[in-house]
Amino acid sequence: MSKRGYIPLDCYPCLFEQVSSLAKITGIGGEKGKELFEHAMRRLLDTRGKGIVVQHVVRSATDKAIALSGRGDGYDPYGDIKRQSNDAAMRFAGAFDKKLRESPDPLQYGVKIAAAGNIIDFGAKKHGSLDVEKELRTLDDREFGRFDFAAFADRLRAASSLLYICDNAGEIVFDKLFIEAMQRYNPAVEITCAVREAPVINDVVFADAHAVGLDEVAAVISSGSIYPGTLLDETSDEFRRLYERADLIVSKGQGNLETLLDEADERLFFILRIKCDQMARLSGVEKGALVLMQGGERG
Amino acid sequence: MSKRGYIPLDCYPCLFEQVSSLAKITGIGGEKGKELFEHAMRRLLDTRGKGIVVQHVVRSATDKAIALSGRGDGYDPYGDIKRQSNDAAMRFAGAFDKKLRESPDPLQYGVKIAAAGNIIDFGAKKHGSLDVEKELRTLDDREFGRFDFAAFADRLRAASSLLYICDNAGEIVFDKLFIEAMQRYNPAVEITCAVREAPVINDVVFADAHAVGLDEVAAVISSGSIYPGTLLDETSDEFRRLYERADLIVSKGQGNLETLLDEADERLFFILRIKCDQMARLSGVEKGALVLMQGGERG
Q1: Testing the interface with A: which of B16, B28, B52 to mutate, by most A Cβ within 10 A?
Q2: Which of B41, B199, B266, B289 is the most exposed place for a label (fewest CB within 10 A)?
Q3: CATH number of the domain located at residue range(s) A79-294 in this protein
Q4: According to the 3-state scheme, what is the secondary structure of B188-256?
């Protein structure tokens, strides 16, 4: 458990939205649904939101929801949503691959695609009504609120090893295109992708990564993380070895930013869309903007 | 306290959104903000959401927020928002009054305006980004999911006394126009408007009603309710006397519907916009639709 763990006030209502989504997706209603909410409330009351992070509560609520659903430990609540997200993203992959290859600066366009993949959070409940095609059509107009591209390109040019920490299903289709662009930019770089150890929200596990063929372009390992983020103390030895040795680390999405930003490591580059006020404060970039941000300025 | 009190699962995340809004509006952050959330969580844990309704939790959280803000008992957290809502609505009042008077069926158009007032919930946090002018421009295209107009007009024609239970600031500007239309339809009807006894969310109290001159067209009394709704057992004797004797009762908005629907009283007509799934289930009308619904079919 992170010593610096803390759940900010702004995350409280959002956590309950997450729990509500879990209840709906697992089909838990009535008394059992209340039990699920009460479980999350007790975690917040018992800890006062200290010594833990939101990722701990989401994991804990997910386990509780799986137990209450009576569908066995192998049940992945967001399994169907993740498959739909991957399928939807795959339908757009060809067009974006073409645009990327024809771009005057394919690496830069690759970063944009990777960040856009995080915009189009196919699985996120709040984005249920998202017009995916419109988001993709207007991708070229999107602006970065922070774009540490020169530092990123410099490091990539010199890198022998790159650790790519994945986030959501759907999004990984775009990660795959970005990874191929990075490989063309530096054919010598060895890229390893890390996915979650266990299903949580719409974060990718092995099966989701394999479904889009991510393993065809890079090695795919589990980070050992059972959380929707990367709490280094709670990752696998293999992951931490790769993490320590990597010349460059790409961290996708909000959960990974939340859990890795305090590492204050210049090898880290965070790619995401800023989705809430709390993240806007953490990143210093306004809500809604795309971000390519080098770590290391804090801590 | 209502014997039939029950907080449905769907209301849990929404309640925490409400608490979050309270914290922001009263400027309570950090540890005090957590105290506010913990207060609401404890009420839900202690009761398991039974024997109370959401209105009890909102009241209780509001009192806690006022106490934590240190601004004294007279502090109305939504005071500024309510003033802005009234002012905004007043800017449109003239145009709608003209449309109403020129309408081929002014009473029907009056119902529409009253329901629209509930759409344009100027104070509701989630509607912060609402384009008021656009909502008003498209008012004529709005459809009712249920429109018990014939029954309503029949009862109004024969009514000597009408009790009008108000909801939000801003909305009451439109209520006032509707009340004038009803008075022209039946000049003999005596109309009394009821507002809340104490500030809660953006529901109107005396001061808000007076600010838009509601007292110029009808008697205005307090219902004695300190809740964002009307729990009959917890209203004043004066209100209950008026309620019992009224030939016709108009109930505006969701909070009043939630708390009065179980009265199963044919004198009750609910006018509102259906704003959530829970209300859609209760009313049998889909989310987003306008409603003029006679009570009395349940219970």
Answers
A1: B16
A2: B266
A3: 3.40.50.10880
A4: CCEEEEEECCCCCCCECCHHHHHHCCHHHCCEEEECCCCCCCCCHHHCCHHHHHHHHHCCEEEEEHHHH
